[in-house]
Amino acid sequence: MTIGIGLLGLGTVGAGVAAILSSPEGRHPLVGQLALRRVAVRDLSRPRPVDLAPEVLTTNPEAVVDDPAVDIVVEVMGGLEPARSLILRAIAAGKSVVTANKAVIARYGEEIAAAAAARGVYVLIEAAVGGGIPIIEPLKQSLGGNRLQRVSGIINGTTNYILSRMAEEGAAYDAVLADAQRLGYAEADPAADVQGGDAADKIAILTGLAYGGSVPRASIPTEGIDRLDSRDVAYAAQLGFVVKLLAVAQHLGTADDGTELLDVRVHPTLLPRQHPLAGVHGVNNAILVEGDPVGQVMFYGPGAGAGPTASAVVADILNIAGIRQVGGAPGQLDPLLAAGSWRLCRLVDGSRTRHRNYVRLQTRDQAGVIGRIGTCFGDAGVSLQSIVQFEGQNGAAEIVAITHEVLEQHFRTALDAIEALAEVEAVAACLRTL
Ligand code: NAP
Ligand code: HSE
Q: Which end of the chain is more exposed for a tag (fewer CB within 10 A), N or C?
């Protein structure tokens, strides 16, 4: 039985998918049953790395969705619209969808999942998080017997590539970002990568799967690497830490009404050099899942790029093809693969969360400053792990403090008092620390 595939997009990911479908030898036999029928692009004249008959290409994506020879629609065009409408159009036509589009799923996932459930089709999203790493299916299926406490990880390949090359080679930020774009890692607008939005989309998706209920994407506190100062990376290294853009979704408890209370966020983070995520470099991603009774499980691999992402897209196509082959009852979905929400979740007020912190202060270099800063921390109930003075410019000092795990509210109170000290010129940087 041949299964018709319609591709919406033939860029980095789409071309990777087309390359797999056009060379089934040595892969799972089901790949040989997938036929690429139609492909939508914006520009027909653009040279493509895969050979396709001219009649396969169209600039009309609706024609791909509506084509009766297309059984599964693969959306790899990116952006919110028309991607969202095309996914809904495919569902309405009774076609399962595979998408790599985390921006759409993080914002419209509930609407899309409800439409898919009502129509009895699948919308699978393995490629939306972690590139080639299987993480969506493990969260839906393999780890279903666990109560998950925390999902944390490096889930943006572009920023990890930039941070790694800056740390290893002292490479300039703009030049490395340009390399990430050339290699097909970055989003069409790389602001989504460097400002943390892409990682926030992905942690929103992982949160929904790990805890069985979604949180509003817009409410996830998000900070990228675009304002990270290379001095903080250097000081962190001297203190035994590596700086990574981390996304975290942590279960904090259950409210009286049964709502799950979560702390979900994205920010540059100091990781102790021996932490399992500290050794994840380049375009690689890693997701650390902590659950009961499994303990810690880490998923690691290439987080972006044509081949890895296409591998994840094809895995989803094969899942759907396999189900079609055994001929499940029409409209009946495997509840694990379809993965709907089953409970309410909400984010806790950030001031009530607990973290370790790194703070860099620019101060006058004079006697007693460290003591007065230490008093401000102590008065607010913030316990320090270390406080170190580095030499600043023009006779100024830079003081770096690392706190123990403290209530965010107490840390902010201490910072307000420190900022008010006459000897303190600026609170120059604040970063979370694991
Ligand atoms: P890309 O290289 O920019 O490719 C986008 C493709 O979609 C292009 O072929 C483009 O046509 C086509 N397209 C865009 N808008 C269209 C429209 N309105 N009508 C018809 N065709 C349209 O993007 P990509 O890197 O492959 O990413 C695609 C999706 O996968 C995004 O959602 C992205 O977030 C996600 N993703 C990417 C990666 C990665 O490593 N790149 C990894 C995971 C997930 P033209 O070629 O004619 O311009
Ligand atoms: N721009 C994304 C990243 C692509 O760099 O991780 C993979 O989702």
A: N
